[in-house]
Specification:
Blueprint lengths: L5 E7 L6 H9 L6 E7 L6 H11 L3 E5 L5 H11 L4 E4 L5 E2 L16 E11 L2 E4 L6 E4 L3 H7 L11 E4 H6 L12 H10 L4 E13 L14 H19 L6 H18 L9 H11 L2 H13 L6 H9 L2 H22 L1
Parallel strand pairs: 1-2, 1-4, 2-3, 6-10
Antiparallel strand pairs: 4-9, 5-10, 6-7, 6-9, 8-10
Helix pairs in contact: 6-7, 7-8, 8-10, 10-11
């Protein structure tokens, strides 16, 4: 039996109400040379049973049932059994239009070219394209100028990309399962080490369903120790990528500054609170010249005056003032949240 052209990997967890929409949209593709790998990550609802029902109907579907381990372990389980020349990822609460896979197949695309499609983000009744880039191929010699305009970390999501499985396997690229977030960005940055061009497709056939959920992992602050590992991991990945092509220093600092902010904030979130001496010691770990510059660039870029105190802290070390400010800041947020109820 010949291997399929594309392996579509869908991690599945607790999405019984929307999973049929996702699967039906994939099975309805005009491009039919694919396998669909559904990875049930120990779902407590009927998601696993739904996967089995679809597998019985369509021979292109393969189902993996595993103990719950998180989205990274689910995606990695899909990669471990994938047989396609290419791999793409789709989230189980999203859906794609019928020409989504067809749009990936460019006859003259080089194997080391990463194809990236646009995204249609859906916020309830509202829907719009995430990016305004035109159809274009960006060769590696144009990466520096392109990423001087486009923030590279903003492209870190795994979906709407077509990855060559040969590159993934040759370099043992996998999603890190020791992180609750940013594992997809690190996967993307590691893959970019082996890419020599990018094909951008302006059409948006992928529908990303945005859930404004304050409990989502991307919005939850982790303990300082984990936030610092996340910060250091992204910095190292960008440093490694700079060995391949120059990255605009301001874009890099803006990106890293966001992770510095997360690490600072993690010291003041209820449940993660540290005493005065502990906070002072941990903040000093971030008070390097590089992190100072990154934090400043990030605050300036995103117009965050309420983090001006944090910048002042790194320049003058007035810990008491920073403690007082952050306490008032979170207290004000709690009052504002109470008024909305």
């Amino acid at each position: 039996m010949n291997s399929p052209r594309i392996s579509v990997v869908v991690p599945v967890y607790k999405v019984a109400d929307v999973l049929p929409r996702c699967i039906d949209s994939i099975l309805g593709q005009t491009f039919e040379d694919f396998e669909l790998i559904l990875v049930d990550d120990g779902s407590p609802d009927q998601s696993g049973a739904i996967c089995d029902e679809y597998q019985a109907r369509d021979p292109r579907i393969r189902v993996i049932h595993k103990k719950n381990g998180g989205v990274s372990t689910a995606r990695n389980a899909g990669l471990d059994v994938a047989t396609g020349r290419y791999v793409c990822f789709i989230d189980s609460d999203d859906w794609v239009e019928d020409r989504y896979l067809e749009l990936f197949i460019y006859p003259d695309t080089a194997p080391d070219c990463l194809v990236i499609q646009n995204i249609r983000q859906e916020y309830g009744e509202r829907s719009y394209k995430k990016y305004d880039f035109p159809d274009r191929v960006v060769p590696i010699d144009e990466f520096p100028s392109f990423f001087a305009e486009t923030q590279i970390v903003s492209l870190g999501y795994p979906f709407t990309k077509l990855f060559l499985r040969e590159i993934i396997e040759a370099h043992a690229i996998r999603f890190r399962n020791d992180m609750a977030m940013t594992e997809d960005l690190l996967f993307f940055l590691e893959y970019m080490l082996h890419v020599n061009s990018i094909q951008f497709v302006s059409t948006a056939y992928y529908h990303y369903i945005y859930a404004n959920n304050p409990s989502s992992l991307s919005q939850i602050l982790q303990p300082f120790e984990k936030e610092k590992i996340l910060l250091e991991s992204v910095l190292k990945a960008l440093d490694d990528l700079e060995q391949k092509f120059p990255i605009d220093i301001h874009k890099k600092q803006e990106a890293i500054g966001g992770y510095v902010r997360r690490a600072i904030r993690s010291l003041y979130v209820p449940g993660y609170r540290k005493n005065y001496r502990q906070r002072r010691a941990l903040l000093k770990e971030l008070a390097t010249p590089e992190y100072k510059r990154c934090l400043h660039m990030n605050c300036r870029k995103y117009h965050l005056p309420h983090y001006a105190t944090a910048v002042f802290l790194f320049r003058h070390d007035p810990l008491f003032s920073h403690d007082a400010y952050m306490t008032l800041f979170f207290f004000a947020k709690r009052i504002a949240a109470g008024r909305k109820k």
